[in-house]
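Second attempt. The first submission of Peptide deformylase had a stray character pasted in from the spreadsheet, which I only caught after the job came back as garbage. Lesson logged: always re-copy from the clean sequence file. Corrected sequence (181 aa) follows.
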Amino acid sequence: MPIQPIRLLGDPVLRTPAVEVTTFDRELRQLVRDLEDTMLDAPGVGLAAPQLGVGLRVFTYLGPDGVGHLVNPRLELSGEQICGPEGCLSIPDVVIDTPRPFRTVARGFSMYGEPVTIEGTDRLARCLQHETDHLDGILFIDRLDPEQRRLALKEIRFAEWAGQPGPIVRQSPHPTYGRAM
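This time the job returned cleanly.
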């Protein structure tokens, strides 16, 4: 499947809440394949439909059992918080310790409309939360405390890709995981 351009910070689609998927058809399956191929090529550990300019509640992820996807996710979060490194393919080259719940149960559907439940801790939990945030128009930098956010925005302002017109694909090294979300 063709690799798609990844939208970067500043593109309004990244701040627009995505709509529920109501039709589980060939077009949805193609979107999931495009998300998977683009995520693996980037390389990343997660990619949400809005990052490809598509306002639907769909994301892919790389988990311990390989590549997966979730349509119309709903999350149950643990109370235990951890802070760990997080990056984003839409904000290349920026990795910042970000607080997140340690455990997540994600419920949704496969691209065929079958119910799916994914349970994750640590890195997988972080990925599921990060990608669901994208579907709600939230970026990981929104989860930072004011001082961290100020530093992140300063780093972004001086990034090589900042101010680029239109969507472009950028590779984002992630020192901890080797891949960005």
